[in-house]
Amino acid sequence: MNAFVSDRYDERVRRLALGIEIIDAARLDRAAKPIAVAIDGVPLAGGTLPVHSSDVDMDGRLLRVSRHNSGLHAMVYVKNLYRSVTKESIDLRFLPPLRRFVPRRISFPLVDPATLTPEPLDRTDAELKVLRAARSRQPYLFPGSAYEVCSIATGLRGRVRRGAAPLRWARVEARLPAPTGGAPGALLGRAHGDDRGEFLLIIGSPPGPLGTPAFKLAVEVTVFARPADPPVSDFIKQHDPLWDLPLEPVTASGPADPVSSGATIPPDYTSSVTQTITFRLGATLTSDVVPFIF
User: Fold this and answer.
1) Rounded Cα gap, residues 231 and 247, in angstroms
2) Which range marks the domain in which residue 74 is found?
3) Which of 34, 143, 181, 266 ranks highest by number of CB atoms within 10 Å?
4) What percentage of the chain's residues is helix, strand, coil (to nearest 5)?
5) 259 within a domain of the structure (yes/no)
6) CA 129, 131, 137: angle at the middle one, nearest 5?
7) What is the pLDDT of residues 218-238, one digit of tens each?
């Protein structure tokens, strides 16, 4: 029995499983250049991957998510391919080219396709709004080392190390200094570290009353990381450039959840190091800062 047209016709209905709009975390707008999205897995098909292979094209190694010319990605249900009795979420990799952004791995919940019937024609506007929100996501990607930055941006090109080695996939927050014994200061910016222990932090203007702006600003920059690398076999390390990139599970509904936006620090990132850095507002990015050492 057809849902939309007369039974005299053959009807094929493709239902959206997951719609993705990738957001540039620095500009808070849709990412302007193409970014590959792939179903998570170990890309073994091509053999051993080259150094810095998070930049390589994953075609033929991981199944891609379709990208529209508008910049949106979409997955549709194909005979319950993306959701079954035992699998209620899907793990995706976001693979930006040329280090413009830092890669991410995020696990998104999926709507049971059985709840999508009866067809939308029988749903109220409120029900449709809930269904659309459950199937649309806005993951944020944070600037990488090759991100195109305005010449008057205020920020930091920083490095993170564990001993003498680069510390991979750190998380960074910049805040105004907190009052003694008070709540944390206002958030000015976030950043993600890459596989080389580098991060690009762009900070916004601090809140305050109108008046003559300050040219210098003291900011507490905190870097979060795991206490130790997760255990994994040498085989996985050899064949997967993102072997230790955290998989972040999304539990909240709607596109603007705190995991997708990068507001939630992974729960196993329990170690942190803080430096107070003085920035010159509107100047070039600062890079002459002592590395954050764990």
Assistant:
1) 14
2) 16-141
3) 143
4) 10, 30, 60
5) no
6) 95
7) 999 999 999 999 998 888 888
Q: Name the H helices within the chain.
A: 125-134, 234-239
Do the Cβ atoms of 13 and 123 come closer than 8 Å?
no
Residue 87 in tokens: 């699998």
Asked whether residue 149 is assigned to any structural domain, the reply reads: no
Q: How much of the chain exceeds pLDDT 70, in percent? A: 84
Which of 84, 110, 141 delimits the end of a domain? Answer: 141
141, 163, 183 — which closes off a domain? 141
Is 244 domain-assigned?
no
Q: How far is CA 40 from CA 1, 234, 235, in A?
A: 36, 19, 17
Residues of the chain with pLDDT under 70: 1-4, 44-60, 79-80, 84-86, 117-123, 128, 181-182, 205-214
Q: Are residues 122 and 162 in the same domain?
A: no
pTM as predicted? 0.86
Residue type, 114: A
If 0-12 CB within 10 Å is exposed, 13-18 middle and 19+ buried, where does residue 275 land? middle
204 & 136 share domain: no
Spell 49-78 as b/e; 16+ CB within 10 A means b.
beeebbbeebeebbebbebeeeeebbbebe
